[in-house]
Amino acid sequence: MALDVFLNTFAGNPLDRASDRRAKPEWIAEQLASPDSLGIAIWNGQPFVEPAPTPENPHGLQIAYLPAKLVGELAGGPERLLFMGLWKDTAVFAVDLEDVANPADGPLQGFGKFEDLRSVALRLPSTEAAIVATAKQMFEWRRRHPHCAVCGQRTEAQEGGWKRKCPSCEAEHFPRTDPVVIMLAYHADRCLLGRQERWPPGMFSALAGFLEPGESIEEACARELSEEAGLRARKVRYHSTQPWPYPSSLMIGLIAEVEDDPGQPDLAELSEIRWFTRAEARDLIAGKLEGVAAPGKLAIAHQLIKAWAEEG
Ligand SMILES: [Zn+2]
Questions:
Q1: Cα of 148 from ligand 1 centre, angstroms
Q2: Distance 164 CA to ligand 1 centre (A)
Q3: Residue 244's Cα: distance from chain center in Å?
Q4: Residues 169 and 175 sit within 8 Å (Cβ to Cβ)
């Protein structure tokens, strides 16, 4: 990536989406038939991977690439097939294998293994984690939106899977991304984290919530802080974003200064809130704070806490 920005896990997909060319079915067919083209398989949201140990990463994995032709055959038509993009001149496709017995025990035996994305994301090269996350998110959309939202008719995949069109009313439907604001609130030298009852004991994280229609990012941040912790936001600044394929969110990471107030948990979303000094936040991120844990590096919450902790 040439972009000089902070990249969270699942960001940094290096493929050229070729959006001008993927609209042409004959071009897609040509790419699919090419012996040079590659394919990846996703089975019920799990990527097909193989071991790729290195001295630095002895448990490293990589995508188990398949010939695109095989992936096209497994897809059996455009519905379960996604044109992911071009890696230089090489086309990359993905197939959505859902509701079938584990293909690693069948047609893909010996080529690799299906693994839970969240569990293995940090063992994959970051670019490959991003490619797989894109495919997962697209397939979740396909599965959850098979019908036209206007007239209810079943829609058809077009443009390599990036658009669905209704054959009845001709409405076009595009993949959705749901914005979520996630914010590290702080006042002076202390930051605020919250916990939900259902989380493992001692786990605290940044507050978060879906952006609602008619809201700016800053307004959504202020509303969530007020609703969940009874705090008033004073200044909101942007840190980074993270595509989050569970199923289709974009996490918008913010750092928010709040007014001097202890706050209180709403007891609906959050069962507890707790303030941490900068030194405690540094220990928390390093996994050295007794009895308390924060999300791991995979999560943007970790990166927000780390960024704020390192500022002071
Ligand atoms: Zn329709």
A1: 5
A2: 10
A3: 2
A4: no
Top CATH class of 25-143 equals: alpha beta
CA 146 to ligand 1 centroid distance, Å: 11
Ligand 1 centroid – CA 215 distance (Å): 29
Residue corresponding to tokens 């008033």: 232
Instruction: State the distance from the centre of ligand 1 to the C-alpha of 30, rounded, in angstroms.
Output: 30
Domain parsing of the chain, residue ranges:
25-143, 178-311
Q: Give residue 305 CA to ligand 1 midpoint distance, Å.
A: 45
- Kindly give the distance from the C-alpha atom of residue 137 to the centroid of ligand 1, in angstroms, as a whole number: 23
178-311, which class in CATH? alpha beta
Per-residue pLDDT of the chain (312 residues; tens, 9 = 90+): 567 888 999 999 999 999 999 999 999 999 999 999 999 999 999 999 999 999 989 999 999 999 999 999 999 999 999 999 999 999 999 999 987 899 999 989 999 999 999 999 999 999 999 999 999 999 999 999 999 999 999 999 999 999 999 999 999 999 999 999 999 999 999 999 999 999 999 999 999 999 999 999 999 999 999 999 999 999 999 999 999 999 999 999 999 999 999 999 999 999 999 999 999 999 999 999 999 999 999 999 999 999 999 998
95: three-class secondary structure by DSSP: strand
Q: How far is the CA of 77 from the centre of ligand 1 (A)?
A: 21
State how far the alpha carbon of 300 is from the alpha carbons of 59, 80, 134, in Å.
23, 30, 17
Q: Check for a shared fold between 25-143 and 178-311.
A: yes
- How many angstroms does the Cα of residue 171 sit away from the middle of ligand 1? 5
Q: Of 182, 178, 180, 126, give the one whose Cα is nearest residue 301.
A: 182
Using the mean position of ligand 1's atoms as its centre, give its distance from the Cα of residue 23 in Å. Answer: 20
Q: Is 185 helix (H, G, I), strand (E, B) or coil?
A: strand
